[in-house]
């Protein structure tokens, strides 16, 4: 049901299970996250109070719960749950950062990123997206700082590279973005999109036409 965007049917089916386990709970929270309604949020809160405490030791379930709370707009509840959790795994940080982004709280996402000891490429993407949302000089400085620190292997991730280009463009550093774009050996379509979108935003028509011509040549 979830894979076919039929969250309400998934929830109806959950309500028919006599003794749902942690997997069923996880799928319920994912269903509510997909709906993003007040009713879904109320259900998330209700079920989260009823589940056995032992279920909270499942990091996948906790991540799903945080994601549902964030997507349904209850940032305060998600924060309380996150901070009270003794064992924070990386996906939980990702769920919180994504939630902050979805709720236009980019600075909180950045603050949380700075608390992660070994951020992976997903966290780095979310950081760049946060900086792109802010569009400030401080955000640009952070993008440059982090882009110099990350492992070279991260640059093989086209999603990360696209996110980095988007952040540079939205923060106004066209030269840096262009340099990174032209030095990239494998240019996937989203990378062209990030460049063209950034260029169009800055009304640099000639460069937009150049990017389009290169896109056509690549085919």
From TrEMBL:
Q: Which InterPro entries match?
A: PPR_At4g14850-like_plant, PPR_rpt, TPR-like_helical_dom_sf
GO terms for biological process, alphabetical: RNA modification
Q: Which domain of life is it from?
A: Eukaryota
Any single GO molecular-function term of the entry would be: RNA binding
Q: What is this protein called?
A: Pentatricopeptide repeat-containing protein
